[in-house]
Design brief:
- By secondary structure, this protein is an all-alpha fold.
- The chain is built from two helices and no strands.
Length: 101
């Protein structure tokens, strides 16, 4: 009887060891996947930060271009409404004015 009890105990220990081995393997896989997902999250956050910085630079560039365009329109209006603005222009100046517009 003690012989069967010993065999049953050893089999139970082997089963428990196998179960613990399987569980620890699952834990290791889960930890590895979590680390991979953390790295992907960090990469995505960095890309978002870079995109936000690029958007801010782009907005600043657009604002500067709008100011320059408004200044150019104001200068053109001032030049066209000045005294003597209705005087005929030479052909080469007329071509330049048409290209600028």
């Amino acid at each position: 009887m003690t012989r069967y009890a010993l065999i049953a105990t050893l089999t139970g220990c082997l089963g428990l060891g196998a179960a613990l081995f399987w569980v620890s393997g699952q834990r290791d896989v889960a930890q590895s996947e979590a680390k991979s997902l953390r790295m992907q999250l960090i990469t995505a956050e960095q890309r978002l930060n870079h995109a936000a910085q690029a958007a801010a630079v782009h907005r600043a560039y657009i604002e500067r271009m709008q100011v320059a365009a408004a200044q150019a329109a104001e200068d053109e209006t001032a030049a066209l409404t000045m005294e003597g603005a209705d005087a005929p222009l030479p052909d080469y100046l007329r071509d330049i004015l048409d290209r600028v517009r």
